[in-house]
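new request in #modeling-help
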Amino acid sequence: MRRKGNLFSLIPYYIWILLFVIAPILLVVYYSLLDLNGHFTLNNYTNFFTSVYLKMTLSSFWYAFLITLFSLFVSYPAAYLITKLKHKQLWLILIIIPSWINLLLKTYAFIGIFGNKGPINAFVQAIGLPNQQILFTDFAFVFVAVYIFIPFMILPIFNALDKLNPALIDAARDLGASKFTTLRRIIIPLTMNGIKSGVQAVFIPSLSLFMITRLIAGNRVITLGTAIEEQFLVTQNWGMGSTIAVFLIIFMFIIMLFTGEKRKGASRHGKTQ
Amino acid sequence: MEKLSKKAKLYLSFVFVVLYAPILFLVFYSFNSGDSMTNFKSFTFSHYSDVFNDSRLMVILINTIVVALLSALISTIIGTLGSIGIVAIRNRKLRNMVLSLNNILIVSPDVIIGASFLILFTMVGIKLGFASVLLSHAAFSIPIVVLMVLPKLQEMSSSLIDAALDLGASRRDVLTRVILPFIKPGIFAGFFMALTYSLDDFAVTFFVTGNGFSTLSVEIYSMARAGVSLTVNAISGLVLFVTLILVLGYYFIINHQTRTGAHK
């Protein structure tokens, strides 16, 4: 605590905060108040509340909800089973490795897999069904997004499950709780923080996906991210793009408020171990 | 420890197969002498030699690596110095505020970071290209470095520093001979994470890169939009290889350090 001299080391760090954390947010807010000619206007905001943008926001939330839900359904049992394995840390690393491989390449793989002549269609035809159009459908989009987010969902849930004191489960079983009751009343409530972090790690990026929508959903799905990208880089309407960005930031804070860890609760569970 | 049932094992294997199949699928077809990801004709390295003979692609590859190394270096220096400063902040409210600000870029969606940096660079007048990409990568890596270094600093007992000072060490000595060696694992982890974040980034780079400059992710995107090309598969084979080496190297360093740390 007496390391006064160290405060100097904060100078470049503070400059970074000022330039790359605070200034960008202020600039986005500032630009959201400008029209195409650089005049102040609130039109962008009134535009956002027209049916076009509201529908897009709603559909973006719907897709993010589906992606988060499916990721959770796949990840929770997987994380649970991994905690039961002998070399669980090694298996966890194996789950995480795919998340380190370039996102673009993983997405590109599905162009081949879901393609008209890809392995899925080969299988479909082998069992005597007609060729299916898989690429450029909602299903393909949600599947690829879930595929990409699974490691990010498994990791926090695994950590929460791993910290869970097994004696609590044994106690519940000894006291006559069924497997399902133990899961519902003991395991899930005590790992809620892991679930929340996972949901946060998946839901927010899902709202802002834009590369996958283009490559896999072929512009069928428009998320908030796609809309921002389009406004900034295609139509060059930075004002409208910034307005959508402002709303995305607001949504992000609301989601974080709901999924934030409750510190007190966490420390209490920690002490029980 | 209870044994897993057959069903459980089947489920886990299914998850692992789904996670790895697309990656192996890509690499498998990178050896296909045909020109699509459908019929495997015969084994060839020609797509790999295509990658190495394409001078434009090589330039992009070098760009990507240079940006990753430089941005990781810059962010590690600023992030480490910042973390050392953060633990020295006495005012609890101020410290919490700084930490919240630190985490903003971590939770922000890439699109927002990209768009807001694009506005920033245009306002300040930095030409879009190498400089803007490098600055953005360093900027979004700094908070990750801080998150990796900070726990190590908090782990360190302040009596170590008091002892060094009592024994006549200058502030400089304390930094270079006590603090830095102690937090070295955190610094390495931070540098490594910054490296992978930079190599992986697509969205932010896509926004702040100009016409003349491209990184691997952005290039793959434009190639993938144009359709399937097995050159991309060859690139993915190479990327997979490099990723595996990096991951293994990382775990080796971390394990090695914790083990030698335990010996002390």
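bot summary: Chain B touches chain A through 84 residues (CB under 8 Å).
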